[in-house]
Amino acid sequence: MIKPPHGASGAGGVRSGSTATVVRLAQENTALREELSRRHLTDLAVGILAAQLRTSPSEAGEHLARLAVSASLSPEDIAADIVNGVAGAVVVSTAGPSADLPGDADEEAAPSPAEARRLRRVLTAAEVSHTVTQGAATLLEGGLKPLGVEALWLWQLTGSGCLRLAGHAGASALEAAQWYWIPPAAPVSVRSAFADAAPVWLPTGPAPPDVLPGPSDRAARALFPLRLRGRTVGLALAVWPESADLDDRLRAALTDLIEVAANVLAAEPLTPSEQPALDDLLDALVHPAMTLKRDRHTSALLVEHVNGPAGEALGGSHRTVGLPVEAAFPLLHADLEAMSRRAHYASFPQRAARLPAEHTAESAGPLLDVRVLPVDTDRTIVLWHTYTDRRTAVGRAVGRLQGLALFEDDLGTGRSTWTDQTYAIFGMERGSPPVPLSELGPRVHPDDADELAELLTDLVDRRKGAAAVVRVVRQDGGLRHVRIAAEPLLHGAALSGITGVYQDISAEYHTEVALTATFDQLTAVRAQASLRHRLVLQLQQAIVPEVPSLTKLQGLGAAARYRPAAQEYRVGGDWYDILPLPGGKVLMAVGDIAGHGIDAATGMVALRNALRGLAFTGHSPGRLMAWLNEVTLHAPGRPTATAVCALYDPEDRTLRWASAGHLPLLLLREGTAQLLEPPHDLLLGAARSPDYREQTTQLRCGDTLLLYTDGLIERRHGGLDQGLAALCRTAEELTSCGIDEQVDRLLSAATGDTDDDTSLIAIRLG
Fold it and tell me: Own/partner pairs for 279-284, CB < 8 Å, 24+ apart?
């Protein structure tokens, strides 16, 4: 955007002059792009003619001109025919507008001459685009939308095996920011496309939890590995708005159009600064991850780095980083060692140009569904989950059944049968003679002899099933708490045997004892929690300002709410402010400091009060944000924060605003919700002296403006786009409410489920 000189933005003549300049420059740019595309297409045709006629390029160019005159066509049309004759015309699918072409189904597979020329011009225009995003937009609008595609994504393959988003079309900026990097632990469908060097077709969307960009899980997608001169350079993703029948003809047409994307990527090479550091990539993941490095001198496998979720799961990164695997994971180190060696054996020393395969292992403790990926000859990445994955939940449930052990006693022959698990419970070697239930007395703790005797009486004398819990003294001296559930085996009136189950419940017993031991402490804990809750509420009431009266807001209706975090004592860093200023303008702001606790709360108060004082200088929102960034940089603990700052001028009903990495504002006008996308400027405290760009929004009577923090929409298992779409739908349903009722109902219907605190401001022009 071209901005007017400082101080001249209010002049209508300057505004119209700037607009005319922008329009003229845009027209010139479009004309230059079209000329470059025509010249590129003509040069391709001249090169083909020169090779075929074995003549010079100048003579080939003259021959091209004569062909155009004799055929009564433009040089570009003749050039398109020549290139199509060599490269092959793009197949036309029946899925789009080309389905209306005359002829039978076989004829529809071959495009008409006019359609073939148009598609060749689209491909040529994409090749000469100045940016990858421009090329993606050209491909989408000119060739893919007729096939039903609504979005195109293009990623470059970096030297570290990551995919960097180079361009996209048809997708929002928020979604693009979310999918800017795809790490080596990519979705299964992405790895499949690289492994097979062939497209992956997903007519009904990827299988859970193989997440990919798109409007819904069921939306159709197609992945294409992009190859140039024999090597893979990137990945393309085509997305449909919903599930689709991706028939053979559509697949052929789409493949023909997407192939040119490799040339589009080649026009924008990676710079060294765009190669992500491995630690930075792991820190960007939402699931636990760590790197293991083998010491070349001792051959020990060491924990080199853990990301935030891993540090939280393991009780702090300081407890594991730098330790040998045996010390950091005493129960799992053998599995991790074996998996690390298998991963390297499969991938080195002749590692293919593909994403490495996934290795999985079942394990107990905090590491679930472990995957180990090789990085280089000395380093591996370990990824895992701390929540239940439905795909492996059944396997882990079966593993827990190993505490159950079967037995059967034949009273006629005196023989007993045990399973392997039974031997494990009693600590006996497999193959040694099993002990019948009636002879178990010497192996049971003396204090539990009566429970065993009562069990045998029920089985033998009363001929009924029964259960008991006894302590079994093992041969190694250990003590196990064992539940015995048994049934009598009858042959007529005679007792022929006993069958049943031993269950080792030692873990349950110890847990029960621990709970019993702490029961007396719960009363004191509850009392402390109640006191802490009251103190937190008092703190929150002290730091959240009151909404000014309507007389001070120049005809604006305003409502604001603060909802604390779900956990009673988890003070958050969210804030809001509505402040009338001298001259009639009104300051509106919301912000969110990273983290929770007293540090976050005190940092929030410092930033809010600083912004209040700075606002009285009369400067613009962009300048206020720059100053607030300096305040953040000098705050204790060097916090980071997102914020949006807006100034409303009642004289012309304009809203000037700036954003530091915050969510978009929501404008509700005539029953329709619209997201006001902010500039992608840095968080407060992230860097020194950044520029914060300003947006100007013209408001109308009856408009409602919402400013909010991410606790209102952020979900554990969903993207921001889904939360924003839900907020828009809810806001549109509440247009007839009063402003106080509207904010209360928005909070009660909020889709956020991260238990984070939430700030919300609603401003209505009355």
Answer: 279/305, 279/307, 281/160, 281/162, 281/181, 281/183, 282/183, 282/307, 282/381, 283/307, 283/308, 284/181, 284/183
**DSSP per residue over 624-646, as a string?**
HHHHHHHHHHTSTT---EEEEEE
In 3D space, the residue among 275, 4, 316 whose CA is nearest the CA of residue 161 turns out to be: 275
Backbone angles phi, psi at 197, to 5 degrees: 50, 40
Nearest CA to 660 among 709, 605, 718?
Answer: 709
The two tokens of residue 85 are 């004759």
Bridge partners, 305 (sequence order): 291
Mean pLDDT per block of 10 residues along the chain (766 residues) reads 39 52 65 71 77 80 79 79 73 48 44 80 81 89 91 86 87 81 74 85 84 87 89 92 91 88 76 58 78 82 84 69 80 74 50 32 51 76 70 44 76 85 84 90 92 93 90 83 89 86 76 52 59 60 62 80 65 82 91 77 82 90 93 84 93 93 93 91 87 94 92 78 89 88 87 75 89
Looking up tokens 């400013």 gives 707
What one-character DSSP code corresponds to residue 654?
E
The per-residue b/e assignment along 514-552, b for 16 or more CB within 10 angstroms, e otherwise, is eeeeeeeeeeeeeeeeeeeeeebeebbeebbeebeeeee
Instruction: Specify the DSSP element, H or E, that contains 360.
Output: strand 360-361
What region, left, alpha or beta, does residue 205 occupy, with left being phi > 0 and alpha being psi -120 to 50 degrees? Answer: left
* Tokens encoding 719: 């993207």
For residue 499, give the H/E element and its range: strand 494-504
Q: Under DSSP, is residue 242 helix (H, G, I), strand (E, B) or coil? A: coil
Q: Is 329 exposed, middle or buried (0-12, 13-18, 19+ CB in 10 A)?
A: buried
Name the residue type at position 293. Answer: K
Element (H, E) at 158: none
Which helix (H) or strand (E) segment is 465 a member of? none
Q: 755: closest CA among 577, 603, 568? A: 568
Q: Which helix (H) or strand (E) holds 116?
A: helix 113-127
- How far is Cα 225 from Cα 688, in angstroms, rounded to an integer? 40
Tally of residues, the chain: 766
